[in-house]
Hints:
The protein is α+β, with helices and mostly antiparallel strands. The protein is globular. Strand 8 and strand 9 form a beta hairpin. Strands 2, 3, 5, 6, 8 and 9 form a 6-stranded mixed beta sheet that branches. It has a 3-stranded antiparallel beta sheet with strand order 1-4-7. Strands 10-11 form a two-stranded antiparallel ribbon. It has 6 helices and 11 strands.
Amino acid sequence: MTDHRPPAAAAVAAVLVGAVPVLLTLAAAGVAQAHGAPTDPVSRVAACGLDGAQRTSAACRAARAVNGGADFSAWDNLRVADVRGRDREVIPDGQLCSAGLDAYKGLDIARTDWPATPLKAGAPFTLTYRSTIPHRGTFNLYLTKQGHDPATPLRWDDLAARPFATATDPALVNGAYRISGRLPSGLTGRHVLYTVWRNTDTPDTYYSCSDVVLTGGSHGEGDAPPRDTLPQTAQPSEAPPSPPADRPTEQPSEPQGTAEAAAPAAPPVDPSAGRPATASADGDDNTLTLIAGSGAAVLALLAVTGSAMLRRRRT
């Protein structure tokens, strides 16, 4: 078929036809990406995002100023591809909160007034991580060491060597993942909770900083239910949750019996003595009773024999 369109129009049409597969591929790739960030304890990027409740705070305004006045509109897209576990090599010291991304560099400024969530050291804890699409991967949660200075840029060495909570492939429920654990004891003051989410079905790793203020508490204190702004909907088919591994399983309380069942049994009655018989562990009382009974029988026999002998002598 002969193309009667002008050469320029034909060229434009060819470009558009060729671009359609590319655009579809990019759109599909964008849909496949996981997006998310912690909202409780609130992360810096979520607090300062367009819908963030603290976006007007002094710290968030300063962060936007560092960004050239740009908002953190993509609060759920703080991710780096192809890290493959090489976090310390890829993410530079002082840029942990931005993951080294220029669009988020305002999150790295060292301040002591970032919006912070109060927590109790040593208490049970649940982090809420909002996400839009379920994906497989592992969450690792770290806290800064005691003595961390929030007025200095965050470095890898400021974090504890091991995560205090880890979750692999948690379920996405009501638009959020929930990672539970127990906060380390012995921490007080202002700290940074650093979350690393390493996807296994995409090449991306997500990083986020949540500012918290820890108050002292011994291990096992603060067993109040974790704060969670998302409603929980229990499914009838779901089994009841198992108790956490770090808490002893609660045993069911024993049923209370009736007064008759709870009262001790009455001691047996000795019909020959007319009073309750008491038995000791070594049986001494029984022996004494037997001896007393035998003595009485002997005395009675002697009395009868003596009477008979007296009658014989008189006769």
